[in-house]
Amino acid sequence: MRKKILIPAVLMLVLAIVYRFFSFSPELVGFSGPTMGTTYTVKFYTTPDTENSWGLKSDVDAVLARVNSLMSTYDPSSELSRFNKLPAGEKVDVSKDLAYVVDQALLISEMSDGLYDVTIGPLVNLWGFGPGKSKDQIPSQADINAAKAKIGYQYLQLDNQSLKKEKNIYVDLSSIAKGYGVDEVSRVLEVNGIESYLVEIGGEIFTKGKKPDGTLWKVAIESPAGGHEVVNRVIELEGGAVATSGDYRNYFEKNGVRYSHTINPKTGKPINHRLVSVTVIDKTTTMADGLSTAITVLGPDKGLAFAQRNGIAAYLLVKNDFGFEERSSDAFQAYLN
């Protein structure tokens, strides 16, 4: 009579794990949805540990809803909106998320000598690019001067998680909050063991890892002449953030003149130079988002000098009589090759 060979349960578990590992084939998964007045997209390759890949969408949606509830100026009940309603001299403890983003925005405000100003809100709203219905009207100089009197990043004080306004200012994080949203979604993927992914919100992008065939993630820089329909350049990233700011995305026209949503806090008016697009690569999408806006306000010459001085990887498209001229900082050269 033959004896049955009994395989220990531990050995069977090990064999099952080994079989699963060697028989696993990564799958490209993607999903998208609305957020922050725009849309988001997530793409990633599954791993042996990501059995419930589609379940991640609910986690991503929850994170983005939280960021919006903290930093939106369109939501009157958001943490930022509640702070903006406080009178001058008030101080309040805020979330770690809001404190971090304000800290990064204040850093860029300092770096740019106030040409990027986190308290730009009164001017953004005056020109019709903030909450409320846009009237597409040019404000009077008196109204511009009144709005400028309510601006000044130096009147916003952050001490750990304590935020204080020393003047009746209005904080607007629309130039940096989407970048933070990208970083937070990336963290969701990280904690779930995703090793190769791309996250995008309204054109701000973060990538990590290589594809299963060894190639890198490709990111397209759109042409101002064709918007999302025409690609100006394609860069490859194994990991890092890409953010693009442009005056061709959000504007209104009046009497044949185009007024950009990007406001110069010194003049109180939309930018009117020939720099139409700025792409920045950085370690975080939060900083890449804010820095691309800062360089856009600075303009083609001062903006490129700013990038060079601070070691920022920046790619600029400047309008000329024949189309667009490409300019890039030294730190961006590696991505062009």
Automatic annotation (TrEMBL):
A Pfam family of this chain: ApbE
Keyword Flavoprotein: yes
EC number: 2.7.1.180
Record key words, sorted: FAD, Flavoprotein, Magnesium, Metal-binding, Transferase
Keyword Transferase tagged: yes
Reactions mediated catalytically: L-threonyl-[protein] + FAD = FMN-L-threonyl-[protein] + AMP + H(+)
Cofactor: Mg(2+)
SUPFAM superfamilies: ApbE-like (SSF143631)
Annotated GO MF terms: transferase activity
Residue intervals passing through the bilayer: none
Family statement: Belongs to the ApbE family.
Protein's UniProt name: FAD:protein FMN transferase
The organism of origin for this protein: Marinomonas sargassi
